[in-house]
Amino acid sequence: MHQQLELLIMLNDLDILVKESQNKNMRKKEESYGFKLVHHSVELARAREEIVRKLDKNLYETYERLMSKYERALAPVVNGVCYGCYMRLPIAETTQQNKNEKVSTCINCGRFLYWIG
Amino acid sequence: MKLGEFLTEKNIKLNLASKKKAGVIGELVELLSVGERIKSMLKDNLLKREKMGSTGVGKGIAIPHCRSVLVDKLTVIIGRSKRGIDYDAQDGKPVHLLFLIVAPPQPQPLEYLVILGEIAKLSKEIVKHPDILKIDEKERFLNVLFDIERKLEKRGK
Ligand SMILES: [Zn+2]
User: Fold this and answer.
1) pLDDT of A35-46, one tens digit each?
2) Active-site residue B65, yes or no?
3) Which of B48, B68, B90 shows the shortest C-beta gap to A47?
4) Could you confirm whether domain A3-115 is CATH 3.20.20.80?
5) How far from B97 is each of B25, B32, B64, B83, CA to CA, in Å?
6) Of the CATH numbers 3.40.190.10, 3.10.450.50, 3.40.930.10, 3.20.20.140, which one belongs to the domain with range B3-155?
7) Are B79 and B138 in contact (CB under 8 A)?
8) CA of A84 to the centre of ligand 1 (A)
9) pTM of the predicted model, to two decimals?
């Protein structure tokens, strides 16, 4: 997997984790199951900084722009369909080899893509 | 939910070797059918979730969980340690039984939250069956688990 794509995935998963823990409904649900959640983790803030430091500046700007627009900046592609906007991606892209060896975006919604299978 | 839809003998490790949280989560992630690099990223994710608050919910049970774009279906892995794991649990007690859940971001959080809730409910019932800590055959272990689930469902209806 492309190193920058790896960083984008780690960043997005981390941001969603923190965002959801701050979401009132999600929080209530988890707490009702017996989980306890902190309001802020210094360690996670530091982990985020560490990821951003290694991430290409332009990619990070695009990432932030996508995050202000969508819930997630990164979408999995399953069977040739972008799971961000549910559009089928062009054959020219879906038939390429080693699709996760570069950073690609959806031609329809612009989200970064992670190809599954 | 039917646990049977998610659990087979392949998803169980009855004798965890590690005594610490990170090691145990690593052992459980090993059972996922994904590549090595993905495993290591998922482990990292699960440990980050632990920083938000330990998923050791008490009474010897832990439910480490995360969602990631790296997986395309919800998977549950069960681990057990007779000796107990130093897990920084809410009640400070060692953890003996773990339900690890990894789920994709889609479909919306709903499926994931429902299963997380079901397993949390189930785990409260399991602590009333301490014999589950002694079973050495995966098949029997699963059957006892499914039995508990069935009883729980009956009572709910
Ligand atoms: Zn798209």
Assistant:
1) 999 988 999 999
2) yes
3) B48
4) no
5) 12, 18, 11, 11
6) 3.40.930.10
7) no
8) 5
9) 0.94
